[in-house]
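ok so I'm stuck.
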Amino acid sequence: MVGSTVYGFQDQLSQIVAQLQLLDYEVLNSHNGSIKVNPHLSNLDNSLNAVRECDLFLGIIRPYYGTGNIGEKNITFEEIKLAVNLKKPYWFLVHRDVVFARLLFSKMKLKTGDKIIIESNRFFDERTIEIYEYVIKNHEPDLTLRNGNWAQEFYRLDEMMTYITTQFSDMEFVENIMNEKI
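replied:
not stuck anymore, here's the structure
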């Protein structure tokens, strides 16, 4: 399954799905229309069912929180949390603007010492840093004990494709990961 914000990135998602299909994967992705949709369920519930159904999960963290927000929940973030909690084999790509903003905002404070609050806007949503910190397991204090906290930074589509091809082209590598007992 490929979990990502969609709007503004449809062309990239289409190319990523096509690349994975060329590598002989059956790809679940809402933009691609390849997840099962129960008309009696919410978009969130249908998306989470797709996570439960998938064998592998590729999450893409972008500077935009997306339009898939239901109350305080974001569909992409909920997909990511469920994939991690279900111990699905997962891989993450994170846009360099999220990584940069996290570093920048961690160094910025008002003269009073208070944290600077960035209003949500169409260019960057600070909540994407929360997703990134979840993925890199920032909540686990001992960095040496963190496993599964790799998030590959990217800026361009070709960088994403390099990572995807490297991770998913060796079927034996992927099958070994799927068969590991955690």
